[in-house]
Amino acid sequence: MLDMHTDFTMITAHFGAHVIQCEAHEIVTQYKKVSTKEIERSKESILDFFDTPDPVSDPISDKLKEDDLQTAARVSVALEKFVEEKNLDGLAYYYEGEEGSDARLVMSNLIVGNSLLTGAGFPMCGESDIKTCIAMLIMDRLGIGGSFAEFHPVDFKEGFVLVGHDGPHNIAIAEGRPVLRSLKKYHGKPGFGAGVEFKIKEGPITMLSISSTYNGRFKFVIAEGESVAGPIPPTGNTNTRGFFKPDVRTFLHRWIKEGPTHHFALGIGHHADTIRKIASYLDIEAVIIP
C-alpha cells in the first residue's frame, strides 16, 4: 500500500507537527508492567462501554472471548501509559512482530484501546497512515469526530457504498452502543482478538483524505454525503451506509480522479467548506467533490 508512505519532513513543513519515531517494544514494555488490578479495572470499563452480542452470520467473528477481553484490557492500559510517557497528540502505527511473540500480540490488539483514545480526542491510525491521522486530528478539533475509514463493497442496486474499517474508530460518533466481537483474523494485519463494530451516526457526513502530490505537496480531498439507516455486516468492523450525490458510481469516479489515498477520516455533519478554509490557511491545495 504505497499510498501510505509519507515523508515526515513534509508533515513538519506543512503542519508544524514534530514527528517522533517510536518503537513497538516501548508499548510492549508497558504491557509487561500492567498489574492484575489495572487489568480488572480496564475490563470493567470496557464492558460498561461496549455491547458483546452473540455471533450472527460472519464466519470469522465470535462472541467476545474472555482471553481476548483480557488481552484488550491489558493492552489498553499499556497504550495509555505509553501515550502519557511520550506526551503524544496522535499515533500512526503498524508492526507485525514474530509469530507467537509478545510484540505481535500487543501490536495486533491495539484496536479497543485506540478506539477509546480516539473517541477521547487522541487520534490513532492503523497501517502507519500518518496523513489520515492528521485528517482525524483536524476533524476531532472541529468537534465532528474523525474515524479511520475506507470504501468497502458498493451496492449499485440500492446506491450506497459501505464506509468503514477494522480500527481504530471514533466511538464518540457511533450510532447506538458500539459492539465488541472476537475475530479469528484481523483485516489488513496479522493476529486475532477483539474487534470494534458500529456505524456512524445517521445524518450528514464529511470525508477528508490527505494525499501527497508528485511535487512534494499535500492535497485535501473532501466530500459530503449521508449516513443512512440500514443493516451493516456483523463482521466486528465499522460500516456505514454512505449515500453520495448524484449517484454512487458517478461520485466514486469523481473521488478517485482527485487522487486520494484509500484511507480517509470520516466525520459527522457537513463541513467541507470549513475544512477547505483550514487548507487555505495552511497553503495546501484542496478540492471538494461536486
In short:
This protein is α+β, with helices and mostly antiparallel strands.
Annotation keywords:
9 helices, 290 residues, alpha+beta, single chain, 3-stranded antiparallel sheet, L-fucose Isomerase, Chain A, domain 3, 6-stranded antiparallel beta barrel, 12 strands
Strand content: 15-25%
* Major sheet summary line: 6 strands, antiparallel, barrel
Task: Assign the structural class, choosing from mainly alpha, mainly beta, alpha/beta, alpha+beta, or little secondary structure.
Answer: alpha+beta
**What does the radius of gyration come to?**
18 Å
Order of helices and strands: HHHEHEHHEHEEEEEEEHEHE
Query: How many discrete structural domains?
Result: 1
CATH architecture: Alpha-Beta Barrel
> How would you describe the shape?
globular
Q: How many helical elements?
A: 9
Which sequence of strands runs across the widest sheet?
A: 4-5-10-9-8-11
Summarize model confidence as the mean pLDDT: 93
pLDDT < 50 stretches: none
